[in-house]
Amino acid sequence: MYLSKIKITLRKSILDPQGKAVEHSIQSLGYGNIKDTRIGKFVELKIDAASDKEAGRITDEICSKLLANPVMEDYDFEVTKLNGVK
Amino acid sequence: MTKPKFGVVVFPGSNCDHDAYNTLKHVLDQDTEFLWHKDSSIGDRNVIILPGGFSYGDYLRCGAIARFSGIMNDVVRFANNGGIVIGICNGFQVACEAGLLPGALLRNASLKFVCRNVTLKVENKKTIFTRSYDTGSYAADKISLPVAHGDGNYICDEDTLKSLEDNHQIVFRYEDNPNGSLDNIAGITNRKGNVLGMMPHPERASEGIVGGSDGRYVFESIISSMN
């Protein structure tokens, strides 16, 4: 069993108004040294796969088909083996 | 001459399906049926409406899950064969997610849900969706329709924008942009011109009693295009 941790963010070229609003809020707390705040999504799922390579391939497929929209989002993931979980 | 048979798709969370049905069935006296999202076929319907609402609670991304509903395979097949499809508001988001239209709809730049009437410029009056605005008693350069959305901020890449412009696919533009959309885009068609996506709601402005009737001529245009 493998665990996929997937991070989805708006593409760098796209203005992230939510990130901007949160950044203003952080700055109003007195943290003037903050910049480039981006809001994204985090998805975690378990995959019953034969190898980490296969788990990675399946994760990539799911991301490109459903979890992320390539027009506006980038995704990134890491796959780890879950020891003792079948 | 083909008689229009409208099909209004009902997703879990659709909330403008009845407005579309009412406009088509009762205001315009057209053959209209609802299509359930789990159906595998659009049957004998030859104009498909993807209505507004919050399909699947807008989970993940607006329209992302609806796009994989049982009926959508047949809607995509139908559209790819030249069938007429209109995606309104959430339906526009579904159509983009399904690849029927280029681009995507982001969160409004203001981060606020906008719910008000907007003035639209009809940029292309030669489409099957806008021809009634071209000549005759409904001729208009500008129309007023309601918007009600949180994610109507249309984006696409530069090449796509250029091809939308070159092929006259930008059908409606906002006069006073409510959501930050690229180039004030409010509605576009696909390259072939048989699929329309728009954020404003023509089905919610189709008779005087609801505050305006500018929207009914989108549907009148389709009906006259088919006759």
Topology:
The complex is a heterodimer of chains A (86) and B (227).
Chain A: E1 2-10, H1 17-28, E2 40-47, H2 52-67, E3 73-81
Chain B: E1 5-10, H1 17-27, E2 31-36, E3 47-50, H2 72-80, E4 84-88, H3 90-97, E5 104-106, E6 114-122, E7 142-149, E8 153-155, H4 158-166, E9 170-174, E10 185-189, E11 195-198, H5 216-226
Parallel strand pairs in B: 1-2, 1-3, 3-4, 4-11
Antiparallel strand pairs in B: 5-8, 6-7, 6-9, 9-10, 10-11
Compact overview of the structure:
The complex is a heterodimer of chains A (86) and B (227). Chain A has helices at residues 17-28, 52-67; strands at 2-10, 40-47, 73-81.
Structural write-up:
The complex is a heterodimer of chains A (86) and B (227). In chain A, 17% of the residues are buried. In chain A, 33% of the residues lie in helices and 30% in strands. Chain A has 2 helices and 3 strands, in the order βαβαβ. Chain A has 86 residues and is of the alpha+beta class. Chain A has a 3-stranded antiparallel β-sheet with strand order 2-1-3, with helices on one face. Chain A has a single domain, classed as Mth169, Chain: A. In chain B, strand 10 and strand 11 form a beta hairpin. Chain B contains 5 helices and 11 strands. Helix content of chain B is 21%, strand content 26%. Chain B has one domain: Rossmann fold. Chain B is α/β, with parallel strands linked by helices and 227 residues long. In chain B, the strands form 2 sheets. Chain B has a 9-stranded mixed β-sheet with strand order 2-1-3-4-11-10-9-6-7, with helices on both faces. The interface between A and B is medium-sized, with 12 and 19 residues.
